[in-house]
Amino acid sequence: MENQKIALITGANRGIGFETAKQLGEKGVTVVLTARQLNVAQEAADKLKAQGIDAFGVQLDVTKADERKAVAEYLSDKFSKLDILINNAGVAPKETLSVNKTIDTTADEFEYVFNTNLFSVVYLTKELLPLIKKSSAGRIVNLSSILGSLTLHSQENSPIASFRVLSYNASKAALNMFTTHLSAELEGTGIKVNSAHPGWVQTELGGDGAPMNITDGAKTSVELALLNADGPTGKFIHLGEELPW
């Protein structure tokens, strides 16, 4: 087990999270899939087990402190370390992302989006960091979005101007800030921390009209999870290309 890589993927019961677990599993990584309901997480893990992948399902609502702690204890007891943390779970406003609104964003919407997309990522990462420090090649991947790019949003003819949803975009920009700060804090430890933009993918969030399929949407997370020692850290990446903050 010492040389076996262990990965935890949040929100892994469907979409990009499930595909990320599948691709990592196909590369010989032991994958721990989380979902808000235990039976859902276990069903997802069982699908991968049926394909010969070493997979486990664990309950985790990332917004709940007791469940974050329980996951840390589970990983400690079962594996004694964690090599890869993929903070994949995320939410969008309950309305569509194509409804531009800024000043009318409600407090409820801000709290709903930021609790999952930022605060829970910080708290879960803190809970699991002692286990990641036991890895010989710790990797933390934060699932961001190009919609969190201040540089692109501020361009005169911004390619993402039709997606100005303050709660979601600001949560991803803040997540990117967490990536830069944590990577700097962990400098010299060998742990790499990066933000991943999966692309506009055909998921429940992305919709059927998105240009990328789920297989390709998971590739950035997988690549960042398996970076070599000379790979980047503290960067915003999509399919091997660096994006502007």
From TrEMBL:
Pfam families membership: adh_short (PF00106)
Keyword NADP set for record: yes
Keywords annotated in UniProt: NADP, Oxidoreductase
InterPro entries documented for this protein: CBR1-like, NAD(P)-bd_dom_sf, SDR_fam
Gene3D superfamilies per record: NAD(P)-binding Rossmann-like Domain (3.40.50.720)
Family: Belongs to the short-chain dehydrogenases/reductases (SDR) family.
Designated name of the protein: SDR family oxidoreductase
